[in-house]
Amino acid sequence: MMLRLALFVAVVFGAALHDNSLGCDCYETGASFPARYAYHRFFDFRAVPDAVPVEPANVFAAQDKGLENGQLGSAYDQAFLTDWTISTTSTGPLAQAPVRRQDSKVNTYIQGNGGGGSRLVLRAYKVGQFASSAQIDSKENDVLFASIRVNARVSGGTGAAASIYAAAGDSDLDILTRDPPTQIRYTGQASASDNGSAQPIAMPNGVSWGDFNEYRLDWRSDVSAWSVNGALVGSKQFGVPSSPGGLTLSMWNNGGPISGNMSTETSAHFEIQWIQMVFNTSTPVMTPCKRVCAVDGVQKVGYPELEHKGAGSQIIVQTWHTVLVLAMSISLLCF
Ligand SMILES: *[C@@H]1O[C@H](CO)[C@@H](O)[C@H](O)[C@H]1NC(C)=O
Ligand SMILES: *[C@@H]1O[C@H](CO)[C@@H](O)[C@H](O)[C@H]1NC(C)=O
Ligand SMILES: *[C@@H]1O[C@H](CO)[C@@H](O)[C@H](O)[C@H]1NC(C)=O
């Protein structure tokens, strides 16, 4: 029983929360800006065991140092912390951002859906001139070019910003709760020629950020591009970041020009079902890619499928099931 439980945890949190694509040398993305990448990560928060449908208590101004404990007792915490850091940094108050932002671990938690299933939640809560916020940073901080996908929804009071960014904010997607529900923003902050302002974009097909959508960021050396549910919504060829960095997700307020102001004693939530990332690092991979795996158009999101075998034209589709069985066998060997 213990071994079976350990195996399950290893598959859900070890393999599935990390690289579940054994048998792939590299990964190929589809759609508007195709590219190949050396590494793949998939973090799935939809079926965390023991997730309870309870939200942790809000943080009040008396606890404004970010010292609150993170969620305990959920199996997720150790596995999650293998790959992510939960921020406790603070900013402000500043003249142009008069609300002190303090990230707290308590605002990053797994919540059960009630009827089964779960999600990762990043929360912002404003009280007085203090905004208790949430941020997670990937421990992989040598990402140099990537295709990043986040399946998420946003809810809550006006004035909060849900952000997804790579390479220290140079390639940024923001969902602002003060915007109409069919509009998001992308920002490139790297270049003086970029006005630095977040460009509003209408989401395709009138979808709302209140519902779960797949937000995608493609960052190549020549372009940054943003897509929603597979449809390209914006791209830019100037000021594309060229230094390695990590992936950051946050839910925040600082009373500044991007987030705006939240009303006191209101909260907002950035709920994340899964995060997928294919990427290169600053160290080039010298081994040739013989086994190319597709990331898009696969049977099951997060489980790349083998496209080509060697240089030949034979196409072998390796299903996610084979990958899962392989992952389980490897986990068994590791135990
Ligand atoms: C990632 O690295 C591989 C191998 O070094 C290279 O072929 C590929 O073009 C790189 N991808 C991007 C988007 O730069
Ligand atoms: C900056 O803003 C000005 C005025 O809105 C616009 O004409 C210009 O194209 C923008 N520059 C860039 C690089 O987006
Ligand atoms: C937020 O409110 C403060 C006053 O509390 C004000 O100075 C600031 O301009 C407001 N920010 C925005 C973006 O409206």
From TrEMBL:
<protein>
    <submittedName>
        <fullName>Concanavalin A-like lectin/glucanase</fullName>
    </submittedName>
</protein>
<keyword id="KW-0732">Signal</keyword>
<feature type="domain" description="GH16">
    <location>
        <begin position="82"/>
        <end position="283"/>
    </location>
</feature>
<dbReference type="InterPro" id="IPR000757">
    <property type="entry name" value="Beta-glucanase-like"/>
</dbReference>
<dbReference type="GO" id="GO:0005975">
    <property type="term" value="P:carbohydrate metabolic process"/>
</dbReference>
<dbReference type="GO" id="GO:0004553">
    <property type="term" value="F:hydrolase activity, hydrolyzing O-glycosyl compounds"/>
</dbReference>
<dbReference type="GO" id="GO:0030246">
    <property type="term" value="F:carbohydrate binding"/>
</dbReference>
<keyword id="KW-0430">Lectin</keyword>
<dbReference type="Pfam" id="PF00722">
    <property type="entry name" value="Glyco_hydro_16"/>
</dbReference>
<feature type="signal peptide">
    <location>
        <begin position="1"/>
        <end position="16"/>
    </location>
</feature>
<dbReference type="InterPro" id="IPR013320">
    <property type="entry name" value="ConA-like_dom_sf"/>
</dbReference>
